[in-house]
């Protein structure tokens, strides 16, 4: 099962994941406030309002281990084959407070057309051991172009596990690249 998040061009996404939860640790109220400020400042990053965007569907799969999830702020940047790139985009969850182990989180983005994808930069701002995140892979679909791109990671993003890095630069896996035909919606009127 996956949850769906949406990150429109002009706002940082849903704030549902910022809602209070009585089971949060004593540090969570500070963390939620910090998350809101970081997400808001990134969402306000200047953009050319005249530039048309295209839809991207980003699917992020967290590892299966019980400690693989994170509640840290997660960010992504898409980079195309001709060097064009998107802004740094916060991936904010709508119905959860964290990236859960074994789950696929789906985000709908509207960003500038950067051509076929070549590289993805993904990172989080977590500092503690509890913020460690095992990222399995990312799949990015460009429905209007009929392309899907696969990025394998299979590593920890953590200051305390693996190689100590919280940022990964992933290259597209050409052998896994797939094309698909976008769905056409047909309406039947009676």
Walk me through this protein's architecture.
With 190 residues, this protein is mainly β. The chain has one domain: Lipoxygenase-1. The chain contains 1 helix and 10 strands; from the N terminus they run E-H-E-E-E-E-E-E-E-E-E. It has one helix spanning 28-43; strands at 2-7, 53-62, 74-80, 89-91, 104-112, 117-124, 133-142, 147-157, 167-171, 178-179. A hairpin with a 4-residue loop joins strand 7 and strand 8 (147-157). The longest helix has 16 residues, at 28-43. Residues 6-32 have low confidence and may be disordered.
What name is given to the CATH topology? Lipoxygenase-1
**Overall number of domains:** 1
Write down the CATH class: Mainly Beta
Strand order of the largest sheet: 1-5-2-7-8-10
Number of helices: 1
Q: Main beta sheet: strand number and arrangement?
A: 6 strands, mixed
Radius of gyration: 17 Å
Structural class computed from helices and strand pairing: mainly beta
Percent range of helical residues: under 10%
CATH superfamily: PLAT/LH2 domain
Strand content: 35-45%
SSE succession: EHEEEEEEEEE
Please state the average pLDDT score. Answer: 78
Coarse morphology: globular
